[in-house]
Amino acid sequence: MTSLLCVRNLSLSYPSPRKRWRRSAPVVALQDVSFDLAAGERLGLLGMSGSGKSSLLRCLLALERPQAGHIHYQGRAVAPGSIAALRWYRRAAQYVPQDPIASLEPRMNVAQLVAEPLLRLGGDGDIARRTEEALESVGLDHRFLSRRPDELSGGQAQRVAIARAIATRPALLLTDEPVSGLDMTIRAQVIDVLRELSNTHGTAIVMVSHDVSIIAGLCQRAMVMEQGRLVEDRPTPELLKTPQHPHTRALLEAAPPLVTAA
Ligand SMILES: Nc1ncnc2c1ncn2[C@@H]1O[C@H](COP(=O)(O)OP(=O)(O)OP(=O)(O)O)[C@@H](O)[C@H]1O
């Protein structure tokens, strides 16, 4: 497989809030994080709350600038460098956020929301058909096309956010807890859609989840973070069967028993 993303020695700290007359030490979110992601690979990111998963995702999305290290996409620099000059990267990488309702423009209807990235990226062919296909693949039929975000449940809004991201068939999909608000049937359906997208179009996926079973069901590889560091990075079945790091073992012991495995 060809390397898509190359992440080397990434470190990120947030300035600490000012307490009265003095500042305390910055909050270290990422420390010396390095890994590669191959085209079409599906990578799960596990870790306790506050371990740095969302910070890493924000760096991969070029929303946060790391203080040290670099990120290259197909050999081109995503970081360091100017965020404003990353238009080319916004075409390649799509994002499914954790909070879909906040991310969907309230004045647009579902058809416009899903078509918007296709139009923005200069989509060719039948935009209406691709919009409907993307919505159908997440279990929403044509009756939803004219609804606005405030007329959707949390789960339906999440599915619109996923349809929006996958309609463009991106080379890289970055997701933060993409199925956490969905019931079990829809959750399984959305996981199938993501797997199908990846298998058919070679989309690489980086997925943050607290749910080990979701990562086991979708991702060939899993990484575990602890206090901003990567402590384990292995094929998911191996990591689940023989966790090496004490933190991974603690994480798996705290998780509910797995129903399925990749
Ligand atoms: N904007 C911010 N300003 C200051 N500190 C931050 C900010 N965002 C995150 N942090 C801190 O950085 C560290 C990593 O946070 P991050 O959100 O990346 O963890 P996480 O693993 O995604 O957690 P969760 O699973 O709870 O979402 C934490 O100590 C957090 O408090």
UniProtKB/TrEMBL annotation:
PROSITE patterns for the chain: ABC_TRANSPORTER_1, ABC_TRANSPORTER_2
A Gene Ontology molecular function term of the record: ATP binding
InterPro entries per the UniProt record, alphabetical: AAA+_ATPase, ABC_transp_ATP-bind, ABC_transporter-like_ATP-bd, ABC_transporter-like_CS, P-loop_NTPase
Superkingdom of this protein's organism: Bacteria
Keyword entries, A-Z: ATP-binding, Nucleotide-binding, Transport
Domain ABC transporter: 7-252
Stored Gene3D superfamilies: P-loop containing nucleotide triphosphate hydrolases
Protein's UniProt name: ABC transporter ATP-binding protein
